[in-house]
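From the methods appendix. Each design record in this collection lists the tokenized structure first, followed by the designed amino acid sequence. Records were kept in a plain field format so they could be parsed without special tools. The example shown here is representative of the layout used throughout.

RECORD:
FOLD TOKENS (383 positions):
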């Protein structure tokens, strides 16, 4: 029997009779999706006219159509999913003229984001890092809500400050400024991640400041008032109020997607203020000729900024940690920017994951990123 013939769904197809009780038993045993080696089988059960898997995986057809199994009400499609992959998806159905899209009713595993939730398909070899879950032995840091009056932004700007466990004003701490900070806390478990990595001595105790925009499409792509707020208002104020190491090498800017562009553009506008960047799936979209980038008007200022940097690249920090998912459209521009950054003399650590443009991908990279940028005693033991 070939590997394809051995697939559970194909063994089901050969069953007689293929009736409701047989399908009930099958779904109770296997659920959905069914992972068998490098193949993933998505299932849906219902009296509908068409079914699709909707996803954002570059390289797979979207939508991915399911086919009815015989005359039953069970639908299936099998695709290749390489080892270590993680995919977020939803099910879309059509019944007559009615279309509906929702999370997979046969799959209880969900991921959350500001846009809502999605079902998760994890291939063989993918594991949620153990430092993502609450560790009862790890002492917890503290989140403090503050409001900063910003002349640059012409408003009061809320920020959330993370103080590590055993915070001591007699010590000096490095500073991490996190763009889309509320989302990192809500959807990437970042407080728990910091608590655990600091407890395990993999990351040095640090102060993190989580900043959320009012209008990210306006404020994040190379916006002068935002950069001035971060570099000329927020950093000096934090240095006044907290026992921070007042040196560029102890300051890091981070962000994902448009937040990655915000982090880079602040560093470009204020070189020498920050020593490192943490860029996750940064929207580093550029054009080599013309200006037809295909990203829509929201990307116009991004492309102008990245094109200008590529034309005259300069070292704005000492080190950059970059990560990107191989299943997202931004993988090509991110790969392309690595040699550009390195050519300036900046040290770049670049990692890829078999994942997409989502918060759990970014969460899963935090251990490697933070332990490289802020190595604790345990990291020095092994490196």
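DESIGN:
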């Amino acid at each position: 029997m070939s590997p394809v013939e051995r697939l559970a769904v194909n063994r089901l197809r050969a069953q007689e009779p293929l009736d409701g009780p047989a399908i009930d038993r099958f779904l109770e045993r296997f659920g959905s999706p069914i992972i068998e080696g490098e193949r993933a089988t998505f299932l849906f059960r219902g009296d509908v006219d068409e079914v699709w898997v909707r996803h954002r995986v570059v390289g797979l057809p979207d939508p991915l159509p399911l086919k009815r199994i015989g005359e039953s009400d069970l639908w299936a499609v099998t695709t290749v999913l390489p080892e270590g992959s993680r995919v977020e998806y939803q099910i879309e159905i059509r019944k007559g003229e009615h279309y509906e899209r929702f999370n997979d009713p046969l799959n209880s595993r969900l991921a959350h984001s500001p846009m809502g939730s999605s079902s998760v398909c994890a291939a063989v070899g993918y594991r949620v890092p153990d430092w993502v879950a609450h560790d009862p032995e790890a002492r917890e840091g503290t989140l403090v809500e503050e409001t900063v009056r910003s002349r640059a932004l012409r408003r009061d700007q809320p920020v959330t400050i993370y103080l590590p466990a055993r915070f001591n004003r007699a010590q000096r701490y490095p500073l991490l400024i996190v763009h889309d900070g509320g989302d990192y806390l809500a959807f990437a478990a970042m407080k728990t991640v910091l608590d655990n990595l600091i407890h395990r001595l993999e990351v040095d105790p640090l102060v993190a400041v989580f900043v959320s925009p009012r209008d990210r499409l306006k404020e994040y792509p190379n916006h002068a008032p935002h950069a001035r707020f971060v570099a000329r208002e927020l950093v000096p104020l934090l240095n006044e109020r907290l026992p921070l190491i007042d040196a560029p090498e102890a300051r890091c800017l981070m962000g994902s997607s448009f937040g990655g562009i915000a982090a880079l553009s602040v560093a470009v506008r204020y070189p020498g203020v920050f020593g490192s960047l943490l860029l996750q799936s940064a929207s580093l979209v550029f054009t080599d000729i013309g200006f037809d980038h295909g990203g829509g008007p929201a990307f116009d200022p991004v492309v102008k900024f990245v094109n200008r940097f590529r034309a005259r690249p300069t070292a704005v920090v000492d080190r950059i940690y970059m990560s990107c998912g191989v299943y997202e459209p931004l993988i090509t521009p991110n790969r392309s920017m690595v040699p550009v950054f390195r050519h300036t003399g900046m040290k770049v650590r670049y990692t890829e994951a078999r994942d997409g443009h989502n918060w759990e991908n970014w969460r899963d990279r935090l251990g490697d990123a933070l332990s490289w940028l802020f190595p604790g005693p345990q990291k020095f033991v092994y490196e």
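APPENDIX NOTE: The domain at 130-382 is CATH 3.40.50.1820 (Rossmann fold).
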